[in-house]
Amino acid sequence: MIPELGIIEGFYGKPWTWKEREETAAFLAPHGYRFYHYAPKADLFLRRRWQEPHPAEEARGLAGLSRTCRSLGVRFGVGLSPYEIYLDFNDDVRDALTRKLAFLDEIGIDDLAILFDDMRGDVATLAERQAEIAHWMRERSAATRILVCPSYYTDDPILDRIFGRRPDNYLEDLGSLLDPSIQILWTGEEVCSREFTPGHLARVASQLGRKPFLWDNYPVNDGPRMSQFLHLRAFTGRPAGIAPHIAAHGVNPASQPVLSRVPALTLVEAYAKGDAYQYGGALSAAAELVLGPDLARSIVNDLLVLNDSGLDRLTPSASAKLRARYAAFDHPAAREIVDWLDGGYRITQEIIDTQ
């Protein structure tokens, strides 16, 4: 059993171009990826400046991406982060939200993801307020599927340290208050979970009153530490046995759009082959399909350096050799590696604080 698979473009830092988004959706659709959710942290008009209209050029790009996805039979969605509106859901906020939802309807969305992550959550009535807002937005959106990302979307205690202690019974209360048709996003036992197990997912489903909709933070590499690495390895820790326990499986990709397609393909194979899945062979096959045999062979040979060592551990001479090697390839993935070596994808704390 292969669950509904899709891309959730939800990372910090250098955003993909509209062409890269459309090409990624087109490449992955024949392999079973059936939704594409646009929610980059760099789009401030969905986040800190959500009350402002999108500039005309950005609006055209969104509408074009929607048309492309729908032509491919891929559901198109947008993630909206109305920053801390649950603290004061007043008439001005409602008017701004009505305008934003009308804009999203105009460009054409199938899925609306209401994202309450990256916000203070130590509010006693948090679940009640968020459920009220989600229902209010659902009534004013033409989207046929509504998703909610809770403020506490993982068991990971790091969220409590950053955003305040989660209210008691928050997940249970949110799950009981939200209409059963509304999906709830979940990243697992950690923000970037190394593994998902049927036991964990069954427990979360019991708390939420529905199967969780996975927001899988692999191969994303958007933190100050993670941006030093290219997450190229095949998916592991996602056994086929979790399929009956989830509503869908969304992949948050890496900052490098073409390279992200390599691990994305291996997830399909992990579900399709079950106990027969071999992550090493899956990586080699996916890399060759995405990159061609020569570039794939080079990347697999350099995997320990690209995926595991990190930029800061590369000596200048080693970096120069890698750069020369990949500059010799006329392929967009090779150019992504060169850009990464040149520091083009580095994420700073300032980027996270301002996006």
Write structural notes for this entry.
It is a single chain. The chain is α/β, with parallel strands linked by helices. It has two domains: 5-277, Glycosidases (TIM Barrel, Alpha-Beta Barrel); 286-354, no CATH class. Helices cover 44% and strands 11% of the residues. The protein has helices spanning 18-28, 56-71, 91-107, 126-139, 158-163, 170-177, 198-208, 257-273, 279-291, 293-301, 303-309, 316-327, 332-341, 349-354; strands spanning 5-9, 33-38, 75-80, 111-115, 145-149, 183-186, 213-216, 248-251. The protein has an eight-stranded parallel beta barrel. Strand 6, helix 7 and strand 7 (213-216) form a beta-alpha-beta unit. Helix 1 (18-28) runs parallel beside helix 8 (257-273) and helix 4 (126-139) packs parallel to helix 6. The longest helix is centred in the N-terminal third of the chain and has 17 residues, at 91-107. The protein is globular and about 60 Å long. The model has no long low-confidence stretch (mean pLDDT 97).
Structural class: alpha/beta
Mean pLDDT: 97
Question: What's the arrangement of strands in the largest beta sheet?
Answer: 1-2-3-4-5-6-7-8
Q: Briefly note the CATH topology name of the largest domain.
A: TIM Barrel
Basic shape: globular
As a percent range, the share of helical residues equals 40-55%
CATH class category label of the largest domain? Alpha Beta
**Total beta-strand segments:** 8
CATH superfamily annotation of the largest domain: Glycosidases
Q: If classified by CATH, what would the architecture of the largest domain be?
A: Alpha-Beta Barrel
Reading the helices and strands in chain order gives EHEHEHEHEHHEHEEHHHHHHH
Q: Report Rg.
A: 20 Å
Unreliable segments (pLDDT under 50, ≥5 consecutive)? none
Q: What amount of the residues lies in strands? A: 5-15%
Give the biggest sheet: 8 strands, parallel, barrel
N- and C-termini, Cα separation: 37 Å
> What is the tally of helical segments?
14
| Count of individual domains | 2
